[in-house]
Amino acid sequence: MSSCDEPVLGHELDMEMQKNAQDPAVRERIGKLLNEQPFAVLCTQGEGQPYGSVVAYAVSQDLKAATFATPVATWKFRLLSECNRVALVVDSRAKFPDDMMKVEAVTAIGRAVQLNSGPEFDRWADLLTARHSQLKSFVAAPSSALFRVDITQYVYVTRFQRVHQWTPESNE
Fold it and tell me: What is the phi/psi pair of residue 148, to 5°?
C-alpha cells in the first residue's frame, strides 16, 4: 500500500486564492466550464508516482461531487483502491489552440468513493449516462466500477496564471 501525500501550496498562492474564495462569479464560471467539457483527466497517485487518465464524467448540480466509471481490471482502479485522494482536471484548451490567455482550467480536488449497487449507485449512474449515453452498458457491467468524487475544493485558473479557489460547502 502506498502513502498519500497532501498537496502543499506556497503561502503567497494560498493567500491569493483565499481572496477569491467568496467571488460568486467564480462558482458560475467553474460550473460553466465543467458542463461544457465532457472529459477530465483523473489524477491519482501510487507507489510514489502521479498517474493521469482521461475519464468521461458528470458533475452534480451543486458542484459538490462528480462521477465516473472505470473497468476494475485497470491500473487506475488499483490506484483508486490504494489511495482515494484524487483530482479531476478540466480545461478549455481545445477551444483556443492559438491563444493560451483565453484557456480556462479547473482542478477539482476530493476523495473518490466506489459506489455499490443500490439507490445511490443508480442515482450517480443515471447522472453519468444522461451526459454520456454511450456508457450505459459499460456502467452497468460487472467488470466496471462507478466512483463518486466528493469535491472539497476547486482551483480555477484563467489567463494562464490567475488563480481562484472555490470551496463548495462554504458558498451555499
Answer: -115, 135
Q: 129-141 pLDDT, tens per residue? A: 999 999 999 999 9
Q: What is the pTM of this model?
A: 0.83
Q: List the beta strands (DSSP E) in the chain.
A: 39-46, 49-56, 58-59, 65-71, 85-91, 105-115, 144-158, 162-166
Q: What span, in angstroms and rounded, lies between the C-alpha atoms of 21 and 41?
A: 24
Residues 6+ apart with CB under 8 A from 121: 115, 146
d(CA 61, CA 71): 26
CB neighbours of 106 closer than 8 A, spacing ≥ 6? 30, 33, 34, 89, 90, 91, 154, 155, 156, 157
* Residue 4, φ and ψ in degrees, nearest 5: -110, 125
Q: Which domain holds residue 37?
A: 11-170
The reply to whether 2 falls in a domain is no
Q: Is residue 141 part of a domain?
A: yes
Q: What percent of the chain has pLDDT over 90?
A: 65
Residue 18 in this model has a pLDDT that exceeds 50: no
Sign of CA dihedral 118, 122, 124, 125: positive
